[in-house]
Amino acid sequence: MTDPSRLIVGISGASGVVYGIRLLEALKALPVETHLVMTRTAEITLAHETDMKVSDVRRLADVAYKIDDLAAAISSGSYRTMGMIVAPCSMRSLSEIAHGITSNLLTRAADVVLKERRKLVLVARETPLHAIHLRNMTTLAEMGAIIAPPVPAFYTRPTTLDDIIDHTVGRVLDLFDLDSGKVKRWS
Question: Which residues pair with 65 in a beta bridge?
């Protein structure tokens, strides 16, 4: 059985870095040890989309790894976790994961999660999608990954961007049976 207290959080370079940040913030309130890996492009996107520094994001995690540390604990199947969330997940990272290309720690950790049959959730950020994107998503879904694009739920009647982001983050955490208290449930 996997250790339910460890969750890998990957942040790739797609727009929407706030999803990864908010995910780490939500996990702080839960009994989960977070293991963060960010791509170099995520670090660039962070500077464009927020006022946060990379060090600020790293401090939100219990453990943070460098993208080129292929000897990190999360690169081994013997290091037990409950799985991994990549939020946001660029089409580049999604493609590498779909094809087993493990050129950095984010894609290696995702590969390990898949091979160990653990839960992999990809918050895919791209639009519109072309056939290769869709084929890669299908390939991953057939391997057991969950593709969870950040699609807003308007039945919740969001009044702020934070409401939309929090609902998406809460729904992603629901996939790991983690209740962040951020989801307005349909009743």
Answer: 37
Give 70-84 pLDDT, tens digit per residue. Answer: 999 999 999 999 999
Which of 159, 165, 143, 157 is CA-nearest to residue 187? 157
Place of tokens 């939500």: 26
Output the 3-class SS for the chain. CCCCCEEEEEECCCCCHHHHHHHHHHHHCCCCEEEEEECHHHHHHHHHHCCCCHHHHHHHCCEEECCCCCCCHHHCCCCCCCEEEEEEECHHHHHHHHCCCCCCHHHHHHHHHHHCCCEEEEEECCCCCCHHHHHHHHHHHHCCCEECCCCCCHHHCCCCHHHHHHHHHHHHHHCCCCCCCCCCCCC
pLDDT digit string, tens, across residues 69-126: 999 999 999 999 999 999 999 999 999 999 999 999 999 999 999 999 999 999 999 9
Domains of the chain with bracketed CATH = 6-174 (3.40.50.1950)
